[in-house]
Amino acid sequence: MIKGAVLPPGKTIGIFGGGQLARMMALAARPMGYRVHVLDPDPDCAAKPVVEKVIAASFDDVDAARALAKGVDVVTLEIEKIGLAALTAAAEHAPCRPDATILETIQDRALQKRWLKGHAIPIGPYMEAATPAQLKRAAEQLGGRCFVKAAHGGYDGRGQMELASAEEAPAAWEELKADSVVCEFALDLDKEISVLVARSASGEIAVYPVAHNHHEKRILAWSVIPAEISEELATKAKDLARGIADGLKVVGLLAVEMFVTKTGELLVNELAPRPHNSYHASDSACVTSQFEQVIRAVCGLPLGSVATVRPSAIANILGDVWEKGEPKFERALAIPNLKLSLYGKKPRPGRKMGHLTASAETSEDAVAVVRRGLNGLRP
Ligand SMILES: Nc1ncnc2c1ncn2[C@@H]1O[C@H](COP(=O)(O)OP(=O)(O)OP(=O)(O)O)[C@@H](O)[C@H]1O
Ligand SMILES: [Mg+2]
Fold first, then answer.
1. In the chain, what are the domains?
2. Angle formed by the axes of helices 20-29 and 290-298, to 10°?
3. pLDDT tops 60 at residue 3
């Protein structure tokens, strides 16, 4: 441990972003005795009811970033789209964990892929494009069926389009309205998994058990820890994730999303230097939740155990559930081992509003319980 690097309870943590991840970070930080300030464009953001202070400002507001950093002892983030100038300015007043160099690499899909490729990390075939003609050529070379993703800003499948053929490239370019994109070969997926790595300010590393993730309409629908995969694949995935976190020297968390293809290849999809939706079940599945762990990591405390307590799953509750009226929460909660987390956001179709968590004897059973709970929510 670096001398003086520990920020003990009583200190204040600043978070760029005040969404549900910041809310859950604050809910883990507070019982440990930390105070939390967030910066978010929305003064009524999801974290507001559980933090000491909200600075309402855009993520590239340099003065607001300074104000956040001046009022706290360490700065972290829950979202990648922070202006680099803002993060760099914040770092003049408080340590930023993770720092601007990591964010610069990760927030641009093209730079992220170049980094992965440059470090011999297995990824799927892709090409970069900065004009409609380049995109069409890329799609042709990749064989037509591909995913086009804006280099900056997308999440939950937004900012990306699936093409059935290169003929659709010009329309996709129009639709995405991006300066540059990456065009990825559409892989035949067997399953999607992720690995969360925690790395503290002292360089200590903890690698969580692998999560198995199921997406619907490109949004995470459910996720379970541990993934029911072979020991061999789990070890390979964890080694890969550990290597990336070490290579980037992330301080905080790094979630590594991976694809397992039908031919058995393990490929990295994308990185997120923060708590991740696919590890919300770590709260029940592991000794230390991802939210407690990120607080420990950025404060230079020893990391908590990531041992599995009991297989646990989450199912995301999307705004669509509100379509025909208020959800029947009492019906879901009648399932004895089901837990509810709501983020306090206004419902909109496709918007993540909360999640259900359940533990069970096996991962498969845990998934079945959260899915049953979710089915019971619709009025
Ligand atoms: N090249 C690909 N081949 C096959 N499926 C893909 C490919 N790229 C993306 N997908 C599917 O779309 C989903 C979302 O893609 P990706 O993770 O790149 O987007 P995102 O908007 O950043 O998502 P999120 O922020 O929710 O992780 C993936 O989890 C996968 O199901
Ligand atoms: Mg993703």
1. 12-96 (3.40.50.20), 125-185 (3.30.1490.20), 189-375 (3.30.470.20)
2. 70
3. no
